[in-house]
Amino acid sequence: MKKLIGIIVKLALSAALIYFLYAKVEVRVYRALGTSMDSTIYNGELLLSVKAKNIQRGDIVVFNTEGSPSIKRVIGLPKEKIEIKNNGNIYIEDNLFKENYISSKTNIGELTYPHTIADNSYYVLGDNRLDSYDSRFTKIKDINKSRIRGKIVFSISRFKLIKKMKY
Fold it and tell me: What residue ranges define each of the domains in the chain, with the CATH number in brackets?
């Protein structure tokens, strides 16, 4: 009987922990689809996200795009002026934005530059710029904070923290 009570207590504590993580911290599991975040996150990788309270440049966020989740890196913050030059360099508020985690230059996409990011919105790019549908395209453009589901913090597949880039 003691063994059964111990199992019931453990199950109840586990259920309470799962509820707390899901409802209060808003921990969610996502699967990366596609190669737009290579070489940071890979196709098929299982990822954990947490509630996105304070979004900063370099965070990797998950947001809704046409009914399905997309995962990209935050490059520009609300009301900032961003520009992508023909040579692939990105400028934020007229300052060169240096990135050491991408392997190719950034193409302009469909937007007209300079572009001022909308209030309460973010400019996001995939780390694999040659294969990313992101803020450079008019259907995505600026991502309003209300569309952001969370910040990616951990890869379950690789059992590794996903760190935001420091600039």
Answer: 2-161 (2.10.109.10)
